Task: inverse folding
């Protein structure tokens, strides 16, 4: 997306704020007019008070009434100007921050609705950088640069028009140097934009590195990679430092160059204005007014050079935010989507093939399988065989490129997604708990669950006993990702979360593989209470965990090669039998 497209999109999305921004511009215009009062008053004082007092030969008395009028006008103009500046700054900041809050919410909701195959392409640190550093750049621009730039532009316009009225010939000097200033601003804007893009890319890499290390701290320490990670971070930190300083080199240089061009014009104006006084075309008061207007003109132009740099950076950051906002979302249900009533839980895979993207090969190839309602199905096979991919098609995390997935004979491609997922629960191998209380984590399975429902689910999950031993009980905060709980405790909370949801289809991703024998026994008991009456898919890496399965699907290279019970598959002497023999060989 080009800068012009970004600005055009911003203009469209800012339309709800146009009335308020119009009021800000009106206040800015009032402020620019009030700023002209000071130069006018000083000219009046010079012509009607100071000059008559010093030039006794003219026999003209100083006009004290003009003095008092000029002083009063100056005072009240300054007071009113401050109020107008406050109004402009407050309104524009409100509009900018309100727009950013809306954009931030839209970005968050977009991330929540990204298809998993799109989400998986992004590192968490890169997403965090877009939320933090990019939105911060935009926030600085709308809170500081935007209000000041509106005032600066209007002050410039008011001063310029007044200078033309006083002496158009002098003002032509500024018109002559305008193309030079425009060229300088345009060139610096391009340099700042390109360097800003590189800088934000570097900070995204830096944030990604930090996030990865924070999440993998135990692995870093276990392998003694502190120095390696420190060096990796140092390199990316230096890359960001270099890119950031290059950007600021252009940002800081721009006002200096603009100021040099402006000063050249000011020098020419001072020389010409002195000449105008000598030839009698201007009096002392007019020239003093004109010089003060030049100051009014130069200050905004100098500030605008900095504002252009800030706004250029903000446009780059806005483009990066729009890049996230334009990512695809999960397919809408569509007008033809059917409501899905309470299901029995029969699942059928009808010639299903699936690939994560066009570059990778097929993860599933012509999968055919039928699971009756209430069956407990174990998916076994080597790593990378496609077990997780199969179960991810059931809650429609992915859509198959070929074939159909049906529940109770209904094609999942044509049902309302919310209805489907309301009847599915997942207990992952690494339970994802949120930084909240135990009760809130359990209630995450069903937000309208009562306290009694939460406690009943905890009892069913064999979690009530350890919860009762905690000082704050169900109000205990579990910490980031449940770090304050043991692995077995986290897993039981995850099972309670699934119980309170009361799903018709349950997916277990090797829920006991990383636990000690005591925790595993407690969870096995909880599962014995949870599984009956529900269609259950167990992703099994250890064959010892599939004792309760009524059906086994052996999967390899994305294909279902064998289907049957444990005894049937052993008797057949095929792939499953060989895997079983390899795992239990003495």
Result:
């Amino acid at each position: 997306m080009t800068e012009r497209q970004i600005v055009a999109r911003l203009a469209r999305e800012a339309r709800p704020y146009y009335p308020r921004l119009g009021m800000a511009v009106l206040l800015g215009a009032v402020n620019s007019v009030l700023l002209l009062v000071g130069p006018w008053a000083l000219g009046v004082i010079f012509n009607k008070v100071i000059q008559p007092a010093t030039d006794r030969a003219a026999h003209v008395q100083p006009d004290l009434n003009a003095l008092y009028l000029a002083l009063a006008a100056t005072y009240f103009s300054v007071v009113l100007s401050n109020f107008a500046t406050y109004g402009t700054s407050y309104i524009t900041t409100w509009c900018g921050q309100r727009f950013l809050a809306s954009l931030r919410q839209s970005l968050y909701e977009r991330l929540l609705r990204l298809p998993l195959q799109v989400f998986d392409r992004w590192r968490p640190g890169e997403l965090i950088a877009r939320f933090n550093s990019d939105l911060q750049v935009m926030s600085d621009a709308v809170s500081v640069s935007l209000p000041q730039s509106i005032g600066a532009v209007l002050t410039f316009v008011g001063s310029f028009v007044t200078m033309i009225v006083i002496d158009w010939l002098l003002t032509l000097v500024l018109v002559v140097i305008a193309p030079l200033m425009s060229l300088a601003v345009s060139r610096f804007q391009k340099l700042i934009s390109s360097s800003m893009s590189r800088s934000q890319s570097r900070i995204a890499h830096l944030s990604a590195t930090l996030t990865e290390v924070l999440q993998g701290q135990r692995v870093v320490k276990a392998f003694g990679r502190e120095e390696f990670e420190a060096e990796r971070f140092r390199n990316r930190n230096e890359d960001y430092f270099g890119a950031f300083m290059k950007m600021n080199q252009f940002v800081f240089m721009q006002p200096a160059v603009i100021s040099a061009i402006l000063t050249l014009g000011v020098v020419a104006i001072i020389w010409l204005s002195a000449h105008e006084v000598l030839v009698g075309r201007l009096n002392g008061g007019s020239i003093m007014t004109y010089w003060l207007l030049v100051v009014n003109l130069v200050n905004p132009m100098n500030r605008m050079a900095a504002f252009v740099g800030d706004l250029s950076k903000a446009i780059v950051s806005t483009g990066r935010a729009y890049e996230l906002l334009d990512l695809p979302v999960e397919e809408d249900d569509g007008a033809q989507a059917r409501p899905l009533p309470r299901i029995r839980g029969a699942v059928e895979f009808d010639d299903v093939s699936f690939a994560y993207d066009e570059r990778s090969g097929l993860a599933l190839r012509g999968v055919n399988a039928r699971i009756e309602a209430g069956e407990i199905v174990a998916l076994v096979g080597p790593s990378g065989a496609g077990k997780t991919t199969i179960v991810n098609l059931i809650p429609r995390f992915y859509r198959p490129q070929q074939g159909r997935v049906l529940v109770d004979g209904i094609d999942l491609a044509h049902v309302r997604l919310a209805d489907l997922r309301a009847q599915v629960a997942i207990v992952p191998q690494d339970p994802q708990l949120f930084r909240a209380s135990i009760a809130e984590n359990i209630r995450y399975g069903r937000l309208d669950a009562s306290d009694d429902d939460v406690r009943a689910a905890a009892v069913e999950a064999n979690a009530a006993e350890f919860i009762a031993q905690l000082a704050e009980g169900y109000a205990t905060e579990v910490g980031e990702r449940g770090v304050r709980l043991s692995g077995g405790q986290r897993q039981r909370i995850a099972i309670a979360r699934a119980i309170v949801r009361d799903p018709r289809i349950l997916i277990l991703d090797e829920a006991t593989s990383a636990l000690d024998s005591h925790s595993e026994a407690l969870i096995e008991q909880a599962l014995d209470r949870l599984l009956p009456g529900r269609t259950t898919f167990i992703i099994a890496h250890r064959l010892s965990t599939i004792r309760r399965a009524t059906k086994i699907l052996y999967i390899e290279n994305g294909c279902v090669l064998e289907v049957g019970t444990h005894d049937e598959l052993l008797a057949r002497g095929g792939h499953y039998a060989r895997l079983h023999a390899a795992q239990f060989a003495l």
Q: What stands out?
A: The first helix runs from residue 3 to 13. The chain has a mean pLDDT of 80. The chain has three domains: 96-325, 345-423+507-516+538-586, 430-502.
